[in-house]
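Hi C.,

You asked whether I'd gotten around to modeling the 272-residue construct. I have! Everything is below, sequence then structure, no commentary in between.
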Amino acid sequence: MGKGPFEVYKIPYMQNPSLIVGWQTQDTGKLGSKVIDFFKEKLGGREIAEIKPLGFFHFGGVRFKEDLVQVPGSKFWACEKHNLLIFKSDEPEFEHYRFSNSLLDFAEHHCQAKEVYTLNGAISLTAHTYPRKILTVFNQLEIKERLQGLGLKDMTWEGPPAISSYLLWLAKKRGIPGVSLWPEIPFYIASREDPQAIKLTLSFLDKRFHLGLDLGELDVEVRDQNEKIAQLRKENAEIDKYIDLLEKGQKLEEEEHLKLAQEVYEILGRGD
């Protein structure tokens, strides 16, 4: 069934589900895409619709992976047992307003979604050994009050608006409560997958929606990541010094930032 910019395969049976949105471009720590993929696998997500790419993405320079063309994907899955609607997409290159409204049109009019959560990683200057926080942006006071006690912290954003913030603004105009989740991710891990931030996000969503998730496999990934960085610190006194400074709340010079990020990127990529 095709109408407008989206293709609908099946309307799920859900009662006012919550919509969770993850972006897979500019995906700091692979947070958004990994959380959505975890839900698809563990909660039995069923593909129900997609936003057609024409008009939203540039096809002059298509991506390739294992000799296959990678077309930008913007898909919805229904986790009917848990009353969740999940969406994963590349960020649109054109027509952001029409794309975001199409996303909300399907969620609101076809699924009667009652609220929206967006997933992004916030690059942090703290050490990976430092306790993480989930920074948040709300579009209504009502949802902020409803989520009190779940460990969320207000985010102060002074840069250009992200697409998630734009989506929340459009949701607010429709009267749909929404929140952007921005878990902290150390800058030197940001270009790699960060299982600690992914687990933190899933833990919040698990509590919020009473999902009963088993996050044991992420504990293994977090331990593996920490062991690799610990080994790097043993082998490289300079890197150990940089992380030690971050642990003490001190700042690094730009050259030190780059050196630390490069060394950690390489150590975490071993075995890929």
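If it helps when you're writing up: The mean pLDDT is 90.

Thanks,
B.
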